[in-house]
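Customer ticket, subject: "Can you confirm the structure for P/Homo B domain-containing protein?"

Message body: Hello, I'm evaluating your service for our small team and ran a test protein. I'd like someone to confirm that this is what the system normally returns, since I don't have a reference to compare against.
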Amino acid sequence: MDVGTGAAFRTPKVLGSATFDFSVPFHAGGIINLGQKQTADGETITLQKAVITPSAVRIFISGQQPWGKASLWATVNVAQDPKTYQVQAGSPQVDGTFLFSFPNDQLSGKHGTWILTVMERENHPGGSIRTWTFRFTVV
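Agent reply: Thanks for trying us out. I re-ran your input and got the following:
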């Protein structure tokens, strides 16, 4: 076959039908609407909700500031689990919230009291660090 010369292609013939029988697992996950507020150094942020699925945990916060001026990171500690789960960055969302996404299955299946700590370091030399702490139960 020569490329670019109007090459001919064979027309496939249908030899019969095929039936596929399979299932795909679906895990709806869960949404915890929280609405908790915490204030640090005069700034209040709200823990809006946590979306928990087997593939990721997404935590949404909102506040009074434009999120671009600060460097935010978060940790989650779970009762009866010695590990600290950390996300280094998040992202501003179109609706004005800020999203932290804990990837993979780090927190999937973890039940009990979760302690979410949000930390902010302002983006300038000598910037202050503020911390907000939230507690909620995952069943």
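A couple of notes from the result: The longest strand covers residues 30-40. The beta strands are 30-40, 43-52, 57-63, 70-78, 84-87, 91-92, 98-102, 112-122, 129-138. Feel free to reply with more questions.
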